[in-house]
Amino acid sequence: MAKKSTRKKPSAKKSSVRKALVKAAKGKAATKKPEAKQKKADAEAFAGTAKRWTPAQIEEAFRRFQAQEPEPKGELKHTNPFTLLVAVVLSAQATDAGVNRATPALFALADTPAKMAALGEDRIRDLIKTIGLFRMKAKNVALLARKLVDEFGGEVPRTREELITLPGAGRKTANVVLNMAFGQPTMAVDTHIFRIGNRTGLAPGKDPLAVELELEKVIPAKYMLHAHHWLILHGRYICIARKPHCERCIIADLCQWPGKTASGVTGFPPSRE
Q1: Active-site entry in 172, 206, 243, 260
Q2: Catalytic residue among 190, 206, 207, 253
Q3: Separation of alpha carbons 168 and 77, rounded Å
Q4: Which domains, and CATH codes, for the chain?
Q5: 190 is catalytic
Q6: What is the pLDDT of residues 137-189, one digit of tens each?
Q7: Rounded Cα–Cα distance for residues 213 and 168 (Å)
């Protein structure tokens, strides 16, 4: 008599994650509709017509993000909370790659508020002139360094309310610093996350703050620490502005964007309005 296998069958949750990752890796997660229909779909989504996700779908999406990249990292190079703050301020309307090319020389000379304040605006400007808006950013970096020395004892503050008082640091900058430097579960909504929130129906909103608050409301707490990075990386490399790579999207069957057609859907239930 043949022995019965003692191997446990994978749970439905693990199976759905594995199937989605495999389809995405093979470039078979979804197909895109013609470009004209994609543009129409985006226009409708940003008008707030996308179907909303169920809590179960949101849980499934972040389970997949976690399975694909358990410990996502930000792409801005830094060595401490201060250099992270400066890098984020410099990244406004610029790419992380462009900032990373300019900051090594800057941080080699000034990796603390006191050193940066002593370096001065003119020298900072010379070191970051390859970055867009470098004149204004050099001024802001010099001013924020001086303010940190004079008002915060040379330390980067750990509250959003204090961070947004620094020159060049808005809510998004504060959220990035709080998340990456101090491990707080904040949601920094940049252009990529704003696009994903509206396009997919995950968290529609008329402005970044509305999307931020909605994401904080719907994302399970256990995923919030890394959610900001998962969504940014997804928007930067998969759900890009023009011609998104739906064929490689690990949440293609959950996404409510009508500009694509999910293929080989895992059987996960569709959302209901």
Answers
A1: 172
A2: 190
A3: 18
A4: 24-71+187-262 (1.10.1670.10), 81-182 (1.10.340.30)
A5: yes
A6: 999 999 999 999 999 999 999 999 999 999 999 999 999 999 999 999 999 99
A7: 22
